[in-house]
Please model this.
Amino acid sequence: GADAVAEEGRGVLPIAPPLPEPAARRPAAAAPWTWGSEAMDRVLSARICACDSLPSLRRLSVPLAEVSAWDGARAASLGAWLIWMVHRVFLNDPDLKVLDLSALPLPTADAEPRIGPKLFSALAYNTHLERLALGDCNLLGDVHAEALAKSLRRNRRLRVLDISSNRLEPADLAAIFASLADNASLEELRCGNQFSDEQVGADELQTLHNALCKNTRLRKLGLELDERHWRDQVTRMLIRNVDIARKRRKAGRRRQTQ
Model:
């Protein structure tokens, strides 16, 4: 979780302490979808994004400690903290293996392209991030889903992705499901409980099943499967992948002993 993010970066970059629990984070006066962009230090954010390498980012003195001191108030550096963490993904920081932004309402793509859109685009070529938690982050469809799906086709490192409890439509999830056909690393996908008038149905589950016919890595799926036929089909593919993973581990142990 957030503790893992802080631990990964300790001693490498001046990373802020982990954020407190979601209930203590949200300022009551701000609409959740504007909070991240309103709590923005513009000058600091610009300095962060101007760093074109990890050494230059390490040399940057970033006063982000106040992010951990909420006390119910809006922290002026929240937006900069988000930009800081996303920029580390963009620069392919080898010490950033876990990024947990759960319950932080990310700004919309139009309001702040340096957070959501930049993060999803950077995933395409990032070779170190293994776990990304974006549950209850105000992720919207269209731009966010399209960029994420495109990057998942190319990413070869991410193992766990949580995009549950957002505002993704069935069509958005279908695009993400389709991308799994070309993904060779993701082992767990949590995408249920979307705040949408429509929920995933037979068409989207068929897309997921078709992708899993080619994908032999995904083993865990956090999604309510209400359609009986496709539930059985998808479950069968996941069980197959669990068995394949077991055989891979067994073969790896055998090679080590030879």
Notes: Strands lie at 98-100, 131-133, 160-162, 188-190, 220-222. The mean pLDDT is 82. DSSP finds eleven helices and five strands in the chain. The CA atoms of residues 108 and 147 lie 13 Å apart.
